[in-house]
């Protein structure tokens, strides 16, 4: 085996060695780590974001970049108002500052959609719902192991 190939194999195997540790000679897996990176971003935050926005049509999703963009959503109870949301997952760790939500709101005036302000509490509530759901998913992963 050539040196570059051997080095590549070692580079792949070394991170795997950190996935488990020995306790009294028994190998134990890292249970529901807060840093789950089978995709480009934290998997709990990604799944929680998709779950939270599941009622809205999705325009774009990029799991490697951690971006979810919805299309315009009109609530049937408020047909003169529509919202568009972008969620950005900023880290591979499950942390409160690892998710950012941006929202756009428009209202219908004389048959035209016009930009309107979004209440800061709306964005904050969406972030809180995503974080709560991500924590619940992590707890479920611990219980199911």
Which range best describes the helical content: under 10%, 10-25%, 25-40%, 40-55%, 55-70% or over 70%? 25-40%
* Global morphology: elongated
Instruction: Decide which structural class fits the backbone.
Output: alpha+beta
- Could you give the order of the helices and strands? HEEHEEEEEEH
Let me know the number of strands: 8
- Average pLDDT reading: 82
Which segments are poorly predicted (pLDDT under 50) over 5 or more consecutive residues?
1-23, 25-31
**Total helical segments:** 3
Main β-sheet description:
6 strands, antiparallel
Q: Compute the CA-based radius of gyration.
A: 21 Å
Written account of the structure:
The chain has 145 residues and is α+β, with helices and mostly antiparallel strands. The chain has three helices and eight strands; from the N terminus they run H-E-E-H-E-E-E-E-E-E-H. The strands form two sheets. Strands 3, 4, 5, 6, 7 and 8 form a six-stranded antiparallel sheet that branches. It has a two-stranded antiparallel ribbon with strand order 1-2. Strand 7 (99-109) and strand 8 form a beta hairpin. The radius of gyration is 21 Å and the shape is elongated. The model is unreliable at 1-23 and 25-31 (pLDDT under 50).
């Amino acid at each position: 085996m050539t040196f570059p190939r051997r080095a590549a194999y070692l580079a792949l195997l070394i991170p795997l060695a950190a996935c488990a540790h020995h306790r009294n000679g028994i190998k134990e897996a890292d249970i529901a780590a807060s840093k789950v990176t089978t995709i480009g971003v934290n998997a709990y935050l990604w799944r929680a974001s998709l779950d939270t926005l599941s009622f809205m049509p999705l325009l774009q999703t990029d799991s490697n970049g951690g971006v979810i963009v919805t299309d315009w959503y009109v609530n049937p109870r408020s047909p003169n108002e529509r919202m568009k949301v972008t969620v950005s997952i900023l880290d591979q760790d499950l942390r409160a500052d690892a998710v950012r939500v941006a929202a756009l709101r428009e209202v219908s005036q004389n048959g035209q959609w016009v930009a309107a302000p979004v209440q800061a509490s709306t964005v904050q509530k969406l972030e809180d719902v995503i974080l709560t759901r991500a924590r619940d998913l992590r707890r479920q992963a611990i219980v199911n192991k």
